[in-house]
Specification:
With 310 residues, the protein is α/β, with parallel strands linked by helices. The chain has two domains: 13-131 and 294-306, Aspartate/ornithine carbamoyltransferase (Rossmann fold, 3-Layer(aba) Sandwich); 134-291, Rossmann fold (3-Layer(aba) Sandwich). The chain has twelve helices and nine strands. It has helices spanning 18-33, 57-68, 88-98, 109-118, 133-147, 163-175, 191-204, 214-218, 238-244, 252-257, 278-281, 288-306, and strands spanning 46-51, 72-76, 101-105, 123-125, 154-158, 178-182, 207-211, 223-226, 263-266. The strands form two sheets. A five-stranded parallel beta sheet has the order 7-6-5-8-9. Strand 3, helix 4 and strand 4 form a beta-alpha-beta unit. Helix 1 (18-33) packs across helix 12 (288-306). The protein binds phosphoric acid mono(formamide)ester and norvaline (NVA). Residues 127, 132, 162-164, 227-228, 231-232, 267 line the site of norvaline (NVA).
Length: 310
């Protein structure tokens, strides 16, 4: 196989520099406003989607984006030989022989890292237990579009210190966002990810702060973000989690504590009455549907970036 030219994997937000992210965002805006200009950019290419967890948005936005750029897709769910014990490395080499790029949704982040090390083509993280970079990057691009900037934007994340929280932390630290995370103490984000982020804020501005107090976190923020209390793969813990997270709901009280112009974001799927009330999710401050649509534009841009296409 001779398809090796310079390419990049995207495993986590922290793989990118601030300049690279801003470049991806700029291209995403061009794609959003003039999609026709990009309609042949993936002609004669085939992208594989290897998903070991459920998905609506990620699968559809990648597949639609690839088709819109004249590429083809092949979806592989739980029926692959991986489920029967074929190694990750063998799977990566085989898939890389047939495909031009691979999007993976899996459990442990180490599975994705092992896959990417063996893959001869770009690998994009479509979500692992620890990171969801395509979602977070899309969300920062959306915030930038709404507010015209990211530097100095005040943002609160309320809920579980999960994959979504980790990717938002890494993005905030690169993009100069002031991010406060409010989670129960036993569900705080990975301290190592926070430490690395704090170091990056020294160069880029912004801040990353953890608290257990959701109301204090929401005070005066321009962006209020939440995610499910029970992520995919944690279903056995859902009863305990619902009790622990009860005080970490995005509701009217938190919205009223925030800035008057606050936008409420949620990566979705949402569970009304749990991590967010129906009143807020379906209310005037909610931007969750245009937020979800933005995945299409940013991921098209990310794919071109990972393939080294100008
Ligand atoms: N937000 C997100 O990644 O949604 P899906 O799980 O539907 O892909
Ligand atoms: N934290 C959630 C995000 C879903 C898009 C999960 O991993 O299930």
């Amino acid at each position: 196989m001779t398809k090796k030219k310079a390419f990049r994997h995207l495993l986590r937000v922290g793989d990118l520099t601030r300049e690279e992210i801003l470049h991806v965002f700029g291209r995403a805006e061009e794609i959003r406003t003039d999609p026709g200009r990009f309609r042949d950019r993936m002609a004669r290419e085939t992208v594989g989607l290897l998903f070991e967890k459920s998905s609506t948005r990620t699968r559809l936005s990648f597949e639609a984006g690839i088709h819109q750029m004249a590429g083809d897709t092949v979806f592989l769910g739980g029926e692959s030989q991986l489920a029967r014990g074929e190694t990750i490395e063998d799977t990566a080499r085989i898939m890389g022989g047939y495909l031009d790029m691979i999007v993976i949704r899996t459990f442990g982040h180490d599975r994705l890292e092992r896959f990417s090390r063996a893959s001869p083509v770009p690998v994009l993280n479509g979500l692992t237990d620890s990171h969801h970079p395509c979602q977070a990057l899309s969300d920062f691009s959306y915030i930038s579009r709404i507010f015209g900037t990211l530097k100095g934007i005040r943002m609160a994340y309320v809920g579980d210190g999960n994959n979504m929280a980790h990717s938002l932390i890494e993005g905030a630290a690169l993009l100069g966002v002031d991010l406060v995370l409010a989670t129960p103490t036993e569900y705080r984000p990975d301290p190592q990810i926070i430490r690395e982020a704090e170091e990056k804020t020294l160069a880029n501005g912004g801040s990353v702060v953890w608290t257990s107090d959701p109301l204090a976190a929401a005070k005066g923020v321009q962006v209020l973000y939440t995610d499910v209390w029970t992520s995919m793969g944690q279903e056995a813990e859902s009863t305990v989690r619902e009790q622990t997270f009860r005080g970490y709901q995005v509701n009217r009280e938190l919205v009223e504590a925030a800035d008057r112009e606050v936008i409420v974001l949620h990566c979705l799927p949402a569970y009304r009455g749990k991590e967010i009330t129906a009143e807020v999710l379906d209310g005037p401050r909610s931007h969750v549907f245009p937020q979800a649509e933005n995945r299409l534009y940013v991921q098209k841009s990310l794919m071109l970036f990972c393939q080294g296409k100008e």
